[in-house]
Amino acid sequence: MKRLLLIVALLSPVIVLAQKTMPKTFDLVVGAYTKGSSKGIAVYRFYAETGRVAYLSQIDGVSNPSYLCISSNNKFVYAVNENDEGEVSAFSFEPKTGALKFINKVSTLGGAPCYVSIDKAQKSLFVANYSGGNIAVLPLNEDGSIAPAVQTIRDPGHGPNAARQEKAHVHTAVLSPDEKYVFYTDLGTDKINVTKYKAKKDNPLTPAKPAFYSIAPGGGPRHIDFSADKKHLYLIQEMGSAVTVFDYDNGKLTQKQTVTLLPDGFTGSTGAADIHVSPDGRFLYASNRGDANDITVFSINQENGELTFIDRKPSGGKSPRNFVIDPTGSFLLVANQNSDNVFVYRIDKNTGKLMQAVSRLDIGSPVCLKFAPAQ
């Protein structure tokens, strides 16, 4: 009996650690356009064992919080205000209750900000201004508030599509896995720009060598994600409705494969949007809007990072602008902007395919989904 108790005592810390590392409940923070029924940012409790979603709280009066990021300590939420004047707002966040409290708001020095990211040290925010055509860097204070922008970078180029690429349109700003670089895509100039990052008062971003990589003219680069082994970068082309695979090594990219998101013979309108690698690194998912309204699933070759088509699943609504995979890798949640809903699909972890939806959340114009541990 004493020996059994000793074994249990030795194993208990391991069990507690595992539970702390991968919780079973999360906070789901939802950003939305407020031109319709949505009034701001909503927070829900997500149960990773069942895929069930329960309402927690909402903060009203936030104008068009179309994209969000959450600080690494889960104490702060930052949301762009996607308007012509261009602003970004800071909120304190209480994971236990999901409560948000406004801290401050500052200019992004560019119109229609559509993406915001944060470094793990919580020193800087990086904002992509779509109509402003520039990336902005904004320092963060210890209390979570945002300081005025200290740097903006704008590409004066353009692309071949006169209607969509008349000037620069920066769409995303993503840190490299080691956070030594910031990559920002430019839909208007068909480029992935690469900058070195160092948190400091002046010019935290400096051009890498090379400073950019071009894709096929008219492709319209949008979002990116890295492979689990950090050896590959995946780019979704909004206008080209394709995914391009790059080898990645210390800030440098080598293009190696491009695969379409469209079935043979497809002739409708499209608008590829979001892209994510599964937590186990085995599968890649990409969303497409327009007349497609689906999620495409690819397997990832673990040796070379290349993609193989697996399946295509309707998103459950119209315009799947953004989606997220829960940290356990069990569910994919897709935000359908133009049908005012979020569908929760179970993932078959063996095949990567999306199974039948297990729950649905009705919310006005959802466009961004982010997870945080529920403490």
TrEMBL record:
It comes from the Bacteria. InterPro entries: Cycloisomerase_2, Haem_d1_sf, Lactonase_7-beta_prop, WD40/YVTN_repeat-like_dom_sf. The keyword Signal applies. Residues 1-18 form the signal peptide. Coiled coil: none annotated. Keywords: Carbohydrate metabolism, Glucose metabolism, Signal. One of its GO terms (molecular function) is 6-phosphogluconolactonase activity. The keyword Signal applies. GO terms for biological process: glucose metabolic process. GO terms for cellular component: cytosol. Belongs to the cycloisomerase 2 family. PANTHER family: 6-PHOSPHOGLUCONOLACTONASE (PTHR30344:SF1), 6-PHOSPHOGLUCONOLACTONASE-RELATED (PTHR30344). This is Lactonase family protein. It comes from Mucilaginibacter terrenus. The lineage of its organism: Bacteria, Pseudomonadati, Bacteroidota, Sphingobacteriia, Sphingobacteriales.
